[in-house]
Here is the input.
Amino acid sequence: MKKIITGLITLLIILQITFSQITYEQLQDIANKLNYIYGSNIVVQIYPTPLGAMATGQGLVFIDPYFVNNESYEAIFGVLAHEWAHENLGHIPQVFLQQWLSGNNVYQTNLFNQQKELEADYYAGRALKMYNLPLEPYINVLIKYNKASDYTHPYLRSHPSTQERIEAATKGYNSI
Ligand SMILES: [Zn+2]
Here is the structure.
């Protein structure tokens, strides 16, 4: 039994190394670099999330295992930089407050949230430039995963169009 468990653990470790684009150490390295910029102490955790990555507003950011396994260091850096902006700029409580103040008005909340998304994309671009990383992998992630927003009416979607997001990220990138 012990042998089987040891074998399974070894297999899992091998699979992790084979299929991960980035290692756990690289993920921590990204977190450290982003915390350095903001002077923050946010923790990243690999956890399934339908959004790919998610800021909780509690100093904790989730990243989906699919992202870690299939995207490059630069792409994940951009995605996490976006979530770090949400955390450090207090976006999550602001969106909840907006929702409350608007009397649960979905359209108003969506439009407000879109502004916060563009702000986070701006700072994602800026963070990538700060560390001399290319912007393109993050833009490719936006093109790949933001499609649904492009075909949804602006009032009904929580995220801006891909084009708007690319423009915001590029503006941030060119701000340094
Ligand atoms: Zn976001």
Summary: The mean pLDDT is 92. Strands lie at 43-46, 53-55, 60-63.
